[in-house]
Structures are given as C-alpha cells and as structure tokens.
TrEMBL record:
<protein>
    <recommendedName>
        <fullName>Succinylglutamate desuccinylase</fullName>
    </recommendedName>
</protein>
Length: 215
C-alpha cells in the first residue's frame, strides 16, 4: 500500500469512491494494535472493495502514547465541536465520503474480552455466526458494561455486542455521531480488541470480513 499524507493525517485510498472506511489510532494509548491492523489491511487489500484506511486518526496522540492529542483533547469526546488542527484535518479527510460503512479498531486496555458497538441492529443469525467465529479463536465475549464510570460509555454489553442505534448528532461525542449526521457514514462499527490475545490478527480479520457482509 502506498500511503499519502494530508495535513498531518496519513491515509491510503483504493478507488475513487470508497465504500468502506477503516480507522484506528483514535486514542494514542491504544497503540499496540496498530501494526496488526496495518498488516491485516495490507493482506486483505486485493479482496476489499474501494476503501479508505486511516491508521492513525490522532497521530499526535499516538506519538505521545496518550489518550489525548497534542492539544490535550480526546478526539472521540465532543468531536463535532473540536476545532484543533488535527481534528479539522480529520474532518476534512472524512468529509468527501458519502454514505460509506465505517469501522474503527480500539483496544480495551482493562478487559481481555471482545465486544463491539454497532449503530444498526445486526440480525440475530448473523450475530450468532460472528460470535461463534470469535469463540473459535478462544477469545471471550464481554457481558456487562463498557466503562460504567464514563457517562459517554455506560452502555450494556451482551455477549460482545452493543446495539448503538441512534448515534447521529451534529456536535456528537463520537466521530461516528458527527459523520453519520452529515451523511458521511450510513453505519459504523467500533471493535474493542483485547490487545494481549494471541489471536489478535485473526480477530481483526474476522471483524473486517463481518463489515464486508454489510456492504
């Protein structure tokens, strides 16, 4: 893959009109998974449809290995209202996209269980199949809550799945809120990967394969 850079944001684009956005590096303290995502995307490039890949959504945060960026902002909290240069550059990069499927890879540094957010309801049969694939990798599925002490993340998780329907607002907390409100995304999946698990690469691959079935 030949990466490009625009106003400090590194990205790769296949095709003129991406159907899919793959993103990681939103929080710099979740840096362990970044090389794995790069490797898997490179491996799958030939079978992927037109897509954009942003390996480090917040490069200054990744450089610092901190949750906040160089301006002291967690870009996934109040993204719509933030106006620091890095956030504006990311908005500018995303803005030409129209009604694409977005997926983002995060690491859960607290739990060694897998779960993901979905802004639409996944059919029960498809969800059961995906859960089975994850379990076959010996990756446990989380049930409980993401972060009960964070009002923005106090969502119930059932067997690795969070039904996040209704996430769209102009000045939303999350990147997907803002992007869905403006029509850049039609759906967004946020995968929380247990970074220490030995099957991380296969788990990332399974997540991308799930996304492909939704296009």
């Amino acid at each position: 893959m030949k990466f490009q850079k625009r106003k400090g944001i590194t990205y790769f684009q296949k095709g003129k009109n991406p159907q899919l956005l793959i993103m990681s590096g939103t929080h710099g303290n979740e840096y362990h998974i970044l090389p794995t995502v790069v490797s898997v995307v490179q491996e799958m490039e030939s079978i992927l449809p037109s897509f954009m890949y942003i390996p480090e959504a917040s490069p200054s945060a990744v450089k610092q290995k901190t949750r906040v960026n160089g301006c002291g902002h967690d870009i996934n909290r109040g993204f719509g209202k933030l106006v620091d240069p890095e956030v504006l550059a990311l908005k500018e990069l995303i803005s030409p996209l129209s009604h694409v499927l977005g997926i983002s890879f995060h690491e859960d540094l607290e739990f060694q269980e897998f779960y993901f957010y979905d802004t639409h309801s996944l059919g029960s049969e498809q969800l059961d199949t995906f859960r089975k694939q994850v379990k076959e990798l010996k990756v446990p599925l989380r049930t409980g809550f993401d972060q009960p002490d964070d009002p923005a993340l106090s969502y119930a998780i059932k067997e690795g799945y969070i039904d996040f329907v209704g996430a769209a607002s102009k000045n939303g907390q999350f990147i997907e809120d803002w992007a869905m409100y403006h029509g850049h995304f039609t759906r967004f999946l946020t995968f929380e990967i247990p970074y220490k698990h030995e099957q991380v690469a296969l788990l990332v691959k399974n997540c991308i394969q799930l996304a492909l079935t939704l296009l």
